[in-house]
Structures are given as structure tokens and as C-alpha cells.
Amino acid sequence: MNNRILVLFTTLFLGVGIATAEDMQKSELQQRAEAIDIKQNIAGARSLFIHAFNDYANKGRIVQAAECGAKATALYYKENFWKEAFDLLRRVDFAVESDANSTSPVKAAAHYLTARERMQMYMKLRKPTNAMDNLKVMENQATIAGDEKLKNDLLYNKAVYYYTFGQNAEGNAVFKEMADKLTKQKEYGKVDEVYQTLIANGRKSNSASLVAQSYKGYMAWKDSTTALKYADEIEALKKQIKDNEASIAEQDSSLTARMGFIIALGILAGILAAVLVVGGVVLLRYILLTRKQQKDIQMLTDSNALKAQFISNIAGQLQPTFRKLDGNNPDVKALLDFSEHIQTLSQIENSMDEGVELENTQISPFCEALADQIRDKVRKDVVLHVNAPKMSASINKEYVSRLLLHLLNNAAEYTPEEGTIALEFKKRSAHTLQFLVSNTGSSIPEEKRDDVFKPFLEVRDLTKGDGLGLPICKQMARKMNGDLEIDPEFTKGVRFVLELHV
Known about the structure:
Blueprint: H1 3-13, H2 28-35, H3 38-58, H4 62-77, H5 82-98, H6 104-124, H7 128-145, H8 148-164, H9 168-184, H10 188-204, H11 208-250, H12 255-323, H13 330-350, E1 359-362, H14 363-372, E2 383-387, E3 392-395, H15 397-414, E4 420-429, E5 432-440, H16 469-479, E6 482-486, E7 493-501
Parallel strand pairs: 2-4
Antiparallel strand pairs: 1-3, 4-5, 5-7, 6-7
Helix pairs in contact: 1-8, 1-10, 2-3, 3-4, 4-5, 4-6, 5-6, 6-7, 6-8, 7-8, 8-9, 10-11, 11-12, 12-13, 13-16, 15-16
């Protein structure tokens, strides 16, 4: 899920109850911690939140103590200090249990916050089983606390969990439960904003299926709530009429006063009739328009799939003909390479939902072997440097080798004399690996960094390259549950970062 939709859910649902009037007042320590820009001074903010936690715990305000402890925990693992983060949560739970003056519902609300933070940590570590265990703890604590806001927050975190680990059907079910809950509370504007954000998230990630699915749910909800809104307006007008009639009965019985109210009542009835007529026309036009938009989205999705298959089929059918031609001819070789690249790109895209096999690999010799394959291609006095620790990791050797060789060949081609090419490996966490390929020389302009990963953006002379290498590498990275990006902070040339989650 895109961060924007998660923030929106938080705005709509989050907030822990079980708090006294004193608890609602933030201490000076907490206010100072929240005022710090964590981009500038994350350590300072973390330290103040820990002091605020200790202060609240000493005063018996354990819900706010747990809140500040959870915020400090988040600032720990933001810098990959996982041990410190888990240790702090254990301290918070111990402080909650040690408080003799707090009731069970209050303690449950505090324990809910620590369980929620653990769940978020395990999601970042890609440990779905541990995350689910803490989600169950959250459900139990929310039941003990008996607070409606905690139950709303639990729905939010369930949706986050399911979307994070690709369980879209379960995520959609929880999402619908949240939408239904807001609809019953007549918070139509909030539900509409949630759906619009979900659709925008699908478009941003170029997921036609997510857009279509979200739009279908949105239209169904819109159709039902439009009728509800008109019913609410009609009921409001009826109530106003009823109130006016009661006012008439209470007023002076003079004919002038009665006639005035009767005229007002007639005008109100006329407005009601006009609203119903106009509303009916608008509703009918809206329903017809949305049905057409649904068909357009489905046609676009089907068309894209057919175009991809059609291009792949053409490339496959032309290959036997191209191979009968002179393979030494540069134009023929360029056409053959282009045809193979198209088929490779289509095959990866069509099998994106299928997993890849992982193999335990010794990283240092693996990287050295890749570097050896391009040594004779680098220019004069170019330094080819490999920095890989002596350790093993589970990777798909076929995809990683092909991807890194493409990046290294590009580096060999574009690195000037006396330049430097580097292949590095870093283990960022227990389940996150990074391969980095960098070279000195000209950098890629910021406005073109996203375009290099997109195929078919411009007409090319195929003898000078078809521009499909990096798009293929990008799709390979995604198929391996990772991504390939250009490091924006590297200014001495270009550095590509292949990040894998295993």
C-alpha cells in the first residue's frame, strides 16, 4: 500500500480512549519531543520521548507512557536499531504491569499500543507470522479495554497487514467493513475520500486491476449512499415541516399568523418536490455515467493485456525469419536482440505472480565472478572494485546475475578513462539485501531517472540499443520481491541500487 492511504486511514480511525481529563494534557517533555523535526534530529526526539515515557510511568499515566514509548520505539527501528526497539517495548510492558493503581481496561489499552508497534516492526522485517501473532494480541487487548476507538484502530491495522502481505481479498473485506461503519455513522465525505485515495494509489502504481476493483466497489457504494443521502435530506425536510406544523399549533390562532405559516409550508413543500425531481434526474445521469466508466476501465484492462500478448506473439513469429538472414549484419542482429528482449519482458510481466527459486550463494566469489566477465571491456586505467563480504545469502542467481551484468556492462561502456566502477553488497537487515553498482562519469538528469525504467518511450535506432535492458532489469527485481532504483544521493556519476526482500 501507498503511504498516503495508510495516513488517511489513521486520520479517520486512530485514537486510543480509556483516558482521564489529566491524561488528555500532554506533558512539556512530550510537547518538546513532538516539536522536533526528526529529519534534522531523530536522536534528540527519541531521547525526549523516552524521558516522557519515564515521567508518565512514574505518575501512573500508563496509556500516555505507552504512547511515548511506542513513538521512541518507532524512531529506533527507523534507523535499524531493532534490538534497542524491542528492549524498549519490553520496558514499557513491564512498567504497565507494575502499575498497581491502573484498572485492567487501562492496562489493556496500554498493552495494545506496544503490541501494535511490534506488529509494525515485524511487518517491516517481512515476518507475517510474528506480525499476525501481535495482531491477535491487539484484538484480545481491545476486547478487554472495551473501547470503540481501539476497535476502529484494530480494523485499520488488519487492513494494513493484509495489504502489506498481498492478501488483497482479506484487505478489501476489512476495507469494506470500515466503509460500512462510516456509512452507518453518515460520514459520507470520509468514505468518499478513502475510496478516491485508494483509486489514486492504484493509478500511481500502474495497477489496472486494483483501479478497476477499487472503482467497482466505489461505484457500488456511491449508488447506495446517493439514495441514502437523498433519503436523509427528505427526512430532514419532513422533520422541518413537522416542526413548522408544531410551531403553527403553538402560535396565536389569528388568521394572519396561520396564513403565514401555511404559505411557508407550501413553499417548503414546493422546494421538497423540486429537490426530489432534480435529484432523481441527477441520480439517473450519474448512474448511467458510472456504468459507462466501468465498461471503459474493463476495456482498457483487456486491451492492455491483449496488446502485450500480441506484441510478444509477433516477436516470436518473426524470430525464425530473422535467424535465416545474415546474423553478422548489424541490422539483423539488432532485430533479433529486440525480438528476444520483447519476449523476455512479456514473459516476466505475465508471470509476475509466480515466485522465483532461491539458492544459497556465497556472495564474495559470486560478485568477483561477475566483475571478471567485464574486465576486458573497461577503458584504460579504469579501476574495477568489488566490495562483498564473505557470507552467504539466498538469491535467485539467474536473475541477479543477468541484472548485475547488464548494469556492469553499462558502467564499462560509460565510464571514462581513469574512472572507477564498483560492485558492492550490503545486508541492511535480517531480510533485506542490497547490491550496488556505481561508476564515475556523467550522471543521469533527475527528470529522466524514472524514464530509463520505462519501455517504448521513444523511437530508437535499434543498432544503438533498444532501451529495454533497464525495464527488463526493473521487472526482474520486482519479480524477486524487490526493486531497482537510481540512488539520488550519489553525485559522482551513477549508482544503481538493487534491493531484495527475502
